[in-house]
Amino acid sequence: MNGKDENFLKKLMNTFKIEADEHIKVISAGLLELEQIGNSPEQEKIVETIFREAHSFKGAARAVNLSSIEVICKSLESIFDSWKRHKTAVTPETFDALHKALDFLTKFLAAADAKTYEAEKESINKQASVIRVSLESFLNQPKELEVERITDFRKAPAVTAEPIKEEKKPAESDSAVKEKTIFAETIRIHLKKLDSLFLKTEELFSTKMSLGDRVEDLNKVLASFGELKKERGRISDNIRTLERELKHSDNDKENAVRKNDTVLKLVEYLNWNDGYSKTIEQQLSAIAKSLKQNHRSIEVMTTNLLEEIKNVLMFPFSSLLEIFPKVIRELSHDQKKDVSLDVHGAEIEIDKRILEELKDPFMHLIRNCIDHGIEKSNERKQKGKNPRGLISIEIAQKESGKVEINFSDDGAGVDLEKVRTSALKQKLISDEDAGTMNDQQILSLVFHSGVSSSALITDISGRGLGLAIVREKVEKLGGSVSIKSRPGVGTSFQIILPLTLATFHGIFVRLDEQFLVIPTANVKRVIRVKKNDIKTVENKDTILLDGKVFSLVKLSDILGIELKESETEQYDVYQVVIVSSNENELALIVDEILGEQEVLIKPLGKQLTGLENISSVTVLGNGKVVPVLNVFDLMKSSAKVPAAKSIASVAEKEDAKQKSVLVAEDSITARALLKNILEVAGYEVTTAVDGLDAFTQLKTKNFDIVVSDVDMPRMSGFDLTLKIRSEKKFSNTPVVLVTALESKEDRERGIDVGANAYIVKSSFDQKNLLEVIRQLT
């Protein structure tokens, strides 16, 4: 075989694979629908459709000389023909055999090419022969199994009836003619070609941004001319005066003449320079005006072209969902459950790249619904439910270029106690947290890796990875996922996604000389925070905003970017971006918030797959590459930032020996311990036996800071703090609470009453205490 013939055969095989894939999808969908609809007038229409598909599939296989595929297609055609003529029994076993045959054809086509087929022809033919024999066995069902007609394709035994008489075909309806016209106006284009076209179109977006930057550069040059004219105007009167004096000066002396001539030439040059600069300014102004018009035209054309190309690469959800009815059939069959699928909004289109990434999350959600959610038929009957479980997928387009996907089942719901137990086992929460968390907080734990409500690990579920993968995938696509569940009623997952990945809006921030982009969808607020407003809870920086406590972390610490110490130390007011991911929120300190801008994102490439904290990059008009941050990863990475990296580590420090500390503690042992630690560190320490004693001493002596227990007789640490804040004389005195009360409510109350820091004794570290005191004094 020469090269030309080999290339032709390769193209022919690729064409066949596309056509064959379409035939298999139609046949598979038809079989699934037959199993679901029961006794319905639509049965015969569906049988007719899949019979024709099998016949066409057989002809296509014969055209490319794939005899093994042709043999299987012929057997499929024979079975469908016998169904059509009501001659053959229709049993669940028949459907199982048909689906296995389609599975074999799908796997064969996924790997098939001319060389592979020739190399493994014998093995393929043997497998095909086994499948053919299995299928044809259903054409020889015993006569006693035959019945008058097909009644229920899911449960019916054999089926039989009088042959259907041939009827004259009716004229084609207008809708049929319209359908043919639509298909006649479509062509097949390989997706790789469309992807390449899309990438080239995206480059125009960068060109548009670059052109915009050049317009700005030219405007700056023109502005410089304005400054030049302004400065020249300041001395114009002086130059004119000098020019007049030189022309009327005494020219009798030779030296005076020479000097006057030199200065006159200088004045003439300045006048000429004025005119020449004005000419250049006018020329630049005309160029700037023309360039601005060009930029406007390019902007419109690029935006429209990019939108058109994006529309070409928008695929309906149905192209992804068409595989799931078969998946649900197989999984429910293995679990001995009866499950159906209901889909709404499958016609809504979304970026092909997003659709490709959704396959795994959807598969995990389906497995979760079938294995954890939907009960077996007998159990559902006992609960008064429909014996057949239902998985619903509802897709709706939202404003601002978003799509909402609701993935739900009508099963037993999530067992919160099992989730709580699993989370405790994985040490994701403490015993105290488990007792204080509400149901929704417990429910959200299912998205953490290792958390599962199933005690048994199977090949389908039980490892606690599925929903963690769902959240990770969705959030890396710039979306969010949440869960709701009602015991005995069912569970639903809400997924919000952008319709396209091509462009989006981002907040530009600066760290030292590095620019970064935070997706606007993940940004709740941008604020300024005074250093004095930063509170320390267990040596972690926090801020209080609208009655809510936010963890505060420097973005540079999360990313491992070393900032210039001089720049870091000069901050009295920090610029902060509050970001959110699902129900989690975090406050990030940056050097500068530059503003919001539409950006074109670029993937990182295979070599950087899995890179933490960065999801993609964008290219600015000047060619500079700027990372786009992954907020979901930032949340996880922020927990790894050591306590030493808090704002306290860069706060201005003074000599500890100059500071006086008042310690309020009712336990003599704890009081002696604190006094010893602080005196060794160089502080002057005064002790009080409770809050009332401490407040009395505050009235007689000035202290730089108060360190107090909370649970004390006569006056607690909370009450002492309130009293200190209520007195104008002491209102600015820092208060550190050191206590055994470690619940979330106690910590929040400590901040509410005005404490600057809250240290729990169970995790007491004298270094932490000294660091906090250094920061506050």
Polypeptide structure, described:
The protein has 777 residues and is α/β, with parallel strands linked by helices. The protein is 50% helix and 19% strand. The protein is built from 26 helices and 23 strands. Strands 10-14-15-13-12-11-23-22-21-19-20 form an eleven-stranded mixed β-sheet, sandwiched between helices. β8 (503-511) and β9 form a beta hairpin. The model is unreliable at 142-184, 455-463 and 648-657 (pLDDT under 50).
Based on the model shown, name its key terms.
eleven-stranded mixed β-sheet, alpha/beta, single chain, flat
Which of globular, elongated, flat, extended, rod-shaped describes the shape?
flat
What portion of residues is helical? 40-55%
What number is the mean pLDDT?
76
- Number of distinct helices: 26
Q: DSSP strand (E) fraction?
A: 15-25%
End-to-end C-alpha gap: 87 Å
Calculate Rg over CA atoms.
Answer: 38 Å
User: Which stretches are poorly predicted, pLDDT < 50 over at least 5 residues?
Assistant: 142-184, 455-463, 648-657
Give a short account of the largest sheet: 11 strands, mixed
Adjacency order of strands in the biggest sheet: 10-14-15-13-12-11-23-22-21-19-20
Secondary structure category: alpha/beta
